[in-house]
Amino acid sequence: MILSGGMDSTTAAYIAKSEGYEIVALHFDYRQRTQRREHEAFDAICDALAVANRYVIDLPFFEQIGASALTDASIDVPTGGIEEGVPVTYVPFRNGIFLSIAAAVAEKERAEALYIGVVEEDSSGYPDCREDFIAAMQKAINLGTKEETNLVIKTPLVHLKKEDIVKTALEYGVPLELTWSCYQNEDEACGVCDSCRLRLKGFEKAGIEDPIAYKIRP
Predict the structure, then answer these.
(1) What sections of the sequence does the record tag as coiled-coil (predicted)?
(2) 11 carries a ligand binding annotation
């Protein structure tokens, strides 16, 4: 289970648990702006799920290549609303790299499935969230691993809107107060970055109040 500590991956983890899987949790510290807070959320969610087998992978090279507002301090996180096209918060091929590393861990652990909380709603901005990309990665992973390795990449949220994810999270008893989605703040969610806006919009459409604290609630 690739677990960032955000609402989507946490909900996917709870779905995986409900389907009877023993969870191996995998988290990436890739020098993102909110690395400390995301790591804290990961630990809290793993505790809530009683996950004993946890991996935290250090990936400093994303900071080295830059090109994303999440990893390059010289690029401001946009706060003016969600824009068309690939946003500056896109981290080059991040999910492809995450899935490749997760495949290595999964092969070592003799896992049957690899869960990731990608959502097609994000795909207009993030090409590595698209279902066809995930299908291509699954094929490549199984071609490039041992014959006895036969991984299925599961994306239980891929066709859901954010408000549906909120409702699904509540159905599965996800502790949403432990999750973190903000792109730029670690102590109090900003409320104005793309990720905060998308999350707050989802809660609003679901008719539920987001349990985390925000500096601004638009």
Answers:
(1) none
(2) yes
